[in-house]
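User: My instructor asked us to take a sequence, write out its structure as tokens, and then describe one feature of it. I'm not sure where to start. Here is the sequence I was given:
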Amino acid sequence: MTSIGGVEMVDWNLAVATATRLVRPGPEVTRDEARAVVAELRRHAKASEEHVRAFTRMMPEGTEAEDTPVLVVDRAGWVKANVAGFRELLRPLLDKMQERRGSSPGGAVLGAVGGKVTGVELGMLLSFLASRVLGQYETFAPTSRDLPGSERGGGRLLLVAPNVVHVERELDVDPHDFRLWVCLHEETHRTQFTAVHWLRDHLEGEIQSFLDQTEVDPMTILERLREAAQSLSGARDEDDENGRSIVELVQTPAQREILGRLTAVMSLLEGHADFVMDGVGPDVVASVAEIREKFQKRRASGASRLDQALRKLLGLDAKLRQYRDGERFVRAVVEEVGMDGFNRVWTSPNTLPTKAEIAKPADWIARVHRKAEG
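Assistant: Let's start with the prediction itself. The structure tokens for your sequence are:
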């Protein structure tokens, strides 16, 4: 369903091949060191379950936590997992673009350019991201036999071992503490989705509604993808301040509303994970204060102008704001009404904070707590 005139709109296999060819190999480690890192990340992921559940007072329902595997992967493994997820999430949008091919000049151009060019460009972007992600709870993992632990579909926790080693060396922090600290963040995400039974379906429904509303000309999407890929090769002017992020391909009022809700829930999830990793940290991570200080500086400083331009184009600058704003929201609510009071946020989609409430936690407290008390 994702081909135009017999030509696939996105050559997903080529995207994987391109990304794995271009991605940097990661820090140098011996085989024994690599095995030790993998083993330790697995132990920390397991230990993090109890720490996170005790701190958050959130318990997975049934056997859901046991059904979500923990996978320690290299950068190529992360690419394969995410291409599979992108393919599933973007299917409705690609189908819609296919339907418009006959009436849209952009669709004709996309068909002429073919999926191979798009696959190469997507692969370039994935190679950039694959060297930066420390871990990820993959919420929408499709059923696949290409990656262990994904035969059943559903969520899975990915820890990218070479990236963890790279950052712990860059920050010059205790590696054992840092690995546990990362696992606490990612385990919080797994707990969120296994303890809140409706969360995955709600988030997927919002994303699909957003894609269903999309009326972007296919050529516009291709141009934005090419701009991002050209940033990697240096062909795009780093001083261009007019470039817009891929996320900003929003036209309708309905889409803006959906994007506002998605921004709020992602801010909540990321901020909650940051709050938990720091809350648990002092008891189990001896050097947590040093790690947080150095990690925050690393987040804030970014890298080269080229790296910053690409972050803007991909909307990654918005993700950094989500960590900051979401953590402030969670901290303010917990200070006011306690952890159990904060956990009312997981009652239903109606108790999730709005984008405005993320910025003003007192408004959420007034809506959810005082209304109920009244």
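For the description part of your assignment, you could build on this observation: The chain is about 65% helix and 5% strand. Try explaining in your own words what that tells you about the chain.
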